[in-house]
Write a structure and sequence with these properties.
Blueprint lengths: L11 H13 L5 E7 L10 E2 L3 H9 L5 H10 L4 H8 L6 E5 L4 E2 L6 E6 H4 L3 H25 L4 E3 L7 H13 L4 E2 L2 H7 L9 H6 L3 H12 L4 E3 L5 H12 L5 E4 L4 H14 L6 E4 L5 H6 L7 E4 L1 H4 L10 E8 L5 E3 L14 E8 L2 E9 H16 L11 E5 L1 E6 L2 E2 L5 H19 L15 E2 L2 H5 L4
Parallel strand pairs: 6-7, 6-11, 8-9, 9-10, 10-11, 15-19
Antiparallel strand pairs: 1-5, 1-12, 2-4, 3-5, 3-17, 12-13, 14-15, 14-16, 17-18
Helix pairs in contact: 2-6, 3-4, 6-7, 7-16, 10-11, 11-12
Length: 462
Amino acid sequence: MDTVTSALLTDLYELTMLEAAREAGTASRRCVFEVFTRSLPEGRRYGALAGTGRVLDAIADFRFDDADLRYLRRAGVLKEETLAHLAEYRFTGDVHGYEEGELYFPGSPVLRIEGTFENAVLLETVVLSILNHDSGVASAGSRMITAARGRPCIEMGGRRVNEGAAIAAARAARIVGFASTSNLAAGAHYRVPVAGTAAHAFTLLFDTEEEAFRAQLASQGAGTTVLVDTYDVETAVRTAVELAGPELGAVRLDSGDLEEQASQVRELLDSLGAHRTRITATGDLDEHRVEELKDAPLDGYGIGTRLVTGGGHPAPGFVYKLVEREGADGKMHPVGKRSTDKATLGAGKAAYRMLVGDRAHAELVLPGEEEVAEFERELITELTSGAAHPDWKRTSLRPLQQPMILGGEPVETPRAPARVETARARHAASVQELGLSADEGPDGPVAVPTITDGAEAARLLG
């Protein structure tokens, strides 16, 4: 796809709404939009937020250049007055949100965008396209990392998606714990460690497997990873160790019964003196398959298709909804849909992770100042009643929303690689707060409840 500005990564109705609102005199009303998901996919215990850094870059770059305006003029869908407004468009509002890498739950306001209607409504599509894609990959990848139980995982799904999505997927995978990627563009731009040695095509190029291994070892050294299932696995392992010696780095299994083969290969390697040679498994793996392989003598996994396509849930279902807006009286009013199954809770929200000791206990999403005040009043009542639960003494609230853009200017401007590593650390810390065990398996109920009532939140511990 030819390069386009982030301003055209949008849906037409954002611009037609803008035009109609300007003509009606309501475009300058102050508004609060929030990004959240109504639910998690069945079996998911949490979601992992990724793409926030890319969203901030897209907002900073959101400009209609001359080529964009020429296209819109040719399309004939907007009036000249609107095109003139778009030519001067800059986002001048505020953005607050969860840190990238943070966990989210149903109703978590992972991003809050504040500004006039005409300033904020245009960002909906680009914000959602980035967050839905990247968080879909991250949410699946986090489950895979848990199932791997500390064994390193390589992201290798670039050939399964659009070329731009491949880079974003490698970035998201790195945030949730993947050790490396096969994608060189992700390595160049985000400094994600890259990995890769040889495919079946390399072995098939030579007249014999021995010739192929000899050439690979001569070029890459004994520490390389040799693919041993092109023909006969046992013969390949013996040949590789004979050529490389006990210092052979690793062998890769890509097909067949991986658990059975891994045990046989481990026994064979040890019998040949290659005790430190690792075994890596690839081949349509996901968190469930990795979980099944937990007792196999494997040292790492290469995961592609199921990771970069979201593990069966490619989009978490993030929506961008107006929750508060200025009325004709000049005051802010909560607003929300009442549609069946799609009702939204009005008012801008304050979000906290409730911790008891160092364990997450609930997601508090309190709409409006009144709910926050109600929480404080009820909490004081609980603590002074004489019958307060002893866990309240070990309870703390971790604020989840951080300022990211104020008055149209980014609060911080870290380099892309540093932003990824910061998000990686945030994710690891947040997962640890849940206290989940890999032995519980990938699926289960949502890890913590989302509480939106201040009084209920204050009485949560009983």
